[in-house]
Amino acid sequence: MTKPATSNRFSSRVVQLRKGATLEMVRLTCPDSAQALKIAESFGTAVVDSDGIRDEHERMVIASSASLAEGLGEKAMQIHLQRIVGAFVGSAHGAGQFYSRAVSEARDATAKASNDARDEDLDGPVGYGSAAQRKREFAADMGVQAHALRMAAEGAVAAYEHVVGETWKPFDRPVDNPGASLDRKAADAQMAALG
Predict the structure, then answer these.
(1) CB 3.0-4.6 Å disulfide test: which of 37, 78, 132, 140 passes with 43?
(2) pLDDT at 194
(3) Strand partners of residue 18
């Protein structure tokens, strides 16, 4: 039995989306208030005013939107705030990823330094710590910075919800890849020629 020659192919186009950073991703990569306090105490750095940063950024975004209210419609305000909040969240996520890499490098250097047979990891001249110590201090600085940016992002997200009345979600933009669609069209034409 032969199949009929009709084709039931649908020309559906699969669009890849570039996923934006979410607040949950930020919370997974950036230290929380308790961890930031622990870092500050362990390394003797300044204690960050977490609640102050969060509240100030929330007030700032709300005040900014209030000053734009007469000039922007509801949808335009939502789009504008979507971009502003996305920038805060993206910045915090990037800082959190950088912090995670710094912690990994500090752990590796500390583990190598515990091996007594390695001369390159011994303490430097007087007044200079070991390479492992410098990496731990660098990771601590990055942790405090990532925490501060996390608090700014949380404040911006809270402001978005206050102004727009919806929970903020990242905008997932289509991946620009015009060559792939051209390749797909060529492949479809070639397969059609084969029967």
Answers:
(1) 140
(2) 82
(3) 173
